[in-house]
UniProtKB/TrEMBL annotation:
<comment type="subunit">
    <text>Heterooligomer composed of large and small subunits.</text>
</comment>
<dbReference type="InterPro" id="IPR003753">
    <property type="entry name" value="Exonuc_VII_L"/>
</dbReference>
<comment type="function">
    <text>Bidirectionally degrades single-stranded DNA into large acid-insoluble oligonucleotides, which are then degraded further into small acid-soluble oligonucleotides.</text>
</comment>
<dbReference type="Pfam" id="PF13742">
    <property type="entry name" value="tRNA_anti_2"/>
</dbReference>
<keyword id="KW-0269">Exonuclease</keyword>
<dbReference type="GO" id="GO:0003676">
    <property type="term" value="F:nucleic acid binding"/>
</dbReference>
<dbReference type="GO" id="GO:0005737">
    <property type="term" value="C:cytoplasm"/>
</dbReference>
<feature type="domain" description="Exonuclease VII large subunit C-terminal">
    <location>
        <begin position="129"/>
        <end position="438"/>
    </location>
</feature>
<keyword id="KW-0175">Coiled coil</keyword>
<protein>
    <recommendedName>
        <fullName>Exodeoxyribonuclease 7 large subunit</fullName>
        <ecNumber>3.1.11.6</ecNumber>
    </recommendedName>
</protein>
<comment type="similarity">
    <text>Belongs to the XseA family.</text>
</comment>
<keyword id="KW-0378">Hydrolase</keyword>
<feature type="domain" description="OB-fold nucleic acid binding">
    <location>
        <begin position="13"/>
        <end position="106"/>
    </location>
</feature>
<dbReference type="GO" id="GO:0009318">
    <property type="term" value="C:exodeoxyribonuclease VII complex"/>
</dbReference>
<dbReference type="InterPro" id="IPR020579">
    <property type="entry name" value="Exonuc_VII_lsu_C"/>
</dbReference>
<dbReference type="GO" id="GO:0008855">
    <property type="term" value="F:exodeoxyribonuclease VII activity"/>
</dbReference>
<dbReference type="Pfam" id="PF02601">
    <property type="entry name" value="Exonuc_VII_L"/>
</dbReference>
Length: 450
């Protein structure tokens, strides 16, 4: 057994923390346990959960069965029932209440049978024997029903009475078999196989209510497999509305009672006759409307019907009109083609080469070209002369030829101001012809103009 959770003694716990620790301690300490008692304070909540108390002579405990578990129960709980519940000891933290979470429940005194029922149900369910996609729909208009039950069963009278009232036209075949006692399961399975091979459209498997021991033949594995092996759909009406057997889960459709099974498997004759009469009225109305529409179409076609001679005359007039339009169209096309031919001839005449005229035009262009060249040469010669005159005025040699001298300082720059020189500088003097060197003895700075 795991050690309980012990909070630190010098710390202060919140109420929610304390309740959480209590729940963890209880759930870790107690495994799933079977608890027996009497149901009281039973409540079916709108959410699907079931709340109740289990009590005995001296104590009681609150219980909750969640919707996912309650849906698998197969029978309805009631106050005062003696039951045995497989429960997990827990603690509801928000309200600080001790409670049992119920995983499964069975009637007291039926523990072994109920355990066998749950094990077989789980096994067949894991094999897919109860899968909804394998369920077959019932025929809408069956002709032959098979009934598998006991000849002494009160449920047989209820089924036959219901079928006679709802569908007296149906053919019925009875396949008798015992519905309780030793070996009843194998005989029920054999009767189902015989009914499946008889050509029935649907099989009704029925029996009246009773205890779990009375209905145990319908919890046999062979019955469930015979239902699924049937070539036609099987409707199970076993026991009362609160009774669930393995046969109910295996059947293609489960009815709460044998009478309900007969109602589900058979169409109501009066309803069918009423529907047939309505369809007959609809067919008559549609036929009348169709005949009226065809008569109206016949009248319209009659107005379009002409005598052959009149129709030939109309076609002759249409032919003459088309011939006239064809002649006019051909005349217009010939006239258009003639105009196009004339236009092409004129363009061809204009495009024909004329050597004499072209030679005269070429001579005129030659004269204009020579005249333009002479004028351009004259213009460019005048511009060249003007540029040469301006260039000669800017020639430094011309300035030197008039007696001026170009003085070059030691740094290679032309001297324009005496302040650039100092005594002892070696200067280079350039003349119109030749050059010389001179040394500066004295620098005289001119006075600035006032």
């Amino acid at each position: 057994m795991p050690n309980p959770v012990t909070p630190v003694s010098n710390s202060t716990l919140s109420v929610s923390s304390l309740n959480r620790l209590v729940r963890e301690c209880l759930e870790a300490t107690f495994p799933l346990t079977w608890v027996g008692g009497e149901i009281s304070n039973l409540t079916y909540a709108a959410s699907g959960h079931v709340y109740f108390s289990l009590k005995d002579a001296s104590a009681q405990v609150r219980c909750v069965m969640w919707r996912s578990r309650a849906q698998l129960l197969g029978w309805r709980l009631e106050n005062g029932q003696k039951v045995e519940a497989r429960a997990l000891v827990s603690f509801y933290e928000p309200r600080g209440e001790f409670q049992l979470n119920i995983e499964a429940i069975r009637r007291a005194g039926q523990g072994d049978l109920f355990e066998r029922f749950l094990r077989l149900k789980a096994q067949l369910e894991s094999e897919g024997l109860f899968a909804s996609e394998s369920k077959r729909p019932l025929p809408v208009f069956p002709r032959h029903l098979g009934i598998v039950t006991s000849l002494q069963a009160a449920a047989l009278r209820d089924v036959l009475t219901t079928l006679h009232r709802r569908a007296p036209h149906l053919r019925l075949s009875l396949f008798p078999c015992p519905v309780q006692g030793e070996g009843a399961g194998e005989k029920i399975a054999a009767a189902l196989g015989q009914a499946s091979r008889s050509g029935c459209d649907t099989i009704i498997l029925c029996r009246g209510g009773g205890s779990i021991e009375d209905l145990w033949a319908f919890n046999e594995e062979c019955v469930a497999r015979a239902i699924r092996a049937s070539a036609v759909p099987v409707v199970a009406g076993v026991g009362h509305e609160t009774d669930f057997t393995i046969a109910d889960f295996a059947a293609d459709l489960r009815a709460p009672t044998p009478t309900a099974a007969a109602e589900l498997a058979s169409p109501d004759r009066d309803t069918l006759l009423g529907r047939l009469a309505e369809l007959q009225r609809q067919l008559a109305r549609r036929m009348e409307r169709s005949i009226a529409e065809q008569q109206q179409r016949l009248d319209w076609l009659g107005t379009r019907l002409l005598h052959p001679a009149e129709r030939i005359g109309q076609r002759r007039q249409e032919l003459e009109l088309l011939a006239c339009r064809l002649g006019q169209s051909l005349g217009r096309q010939i006239e258009n083609q003639q105009l196009r031919l004339q236009a092409v001839s004129q363009r061809h005449a204009k495009a024909r080469p004329q050597p004499a005229k072209l030679g005269e035009h070429l001579g005129h262009l030659h004269y204009r070209l020579h005249s333009q060249l002479r004028w351009q040469i004259s213009q460019q010669a005048g511009k060249l002369k003007a540029l040469a005159s301006g260039l000669s005025q800017l020639d430094p040699h011309a300035v030197l030829a008039r007696g001026y001298t170009l003085v070059i300082a030691p740094d290679g720059r032309a001297v324009r101001d005496a302040t650039q020189l100092a005594a002892g500088d070696l200067l280079k003097l350039s003349f119109a012809r030749g050059s010389a060197q001179a040394t500066v003895n004295q620098v005289v700075v001119a006075d600035e103009a006032v």
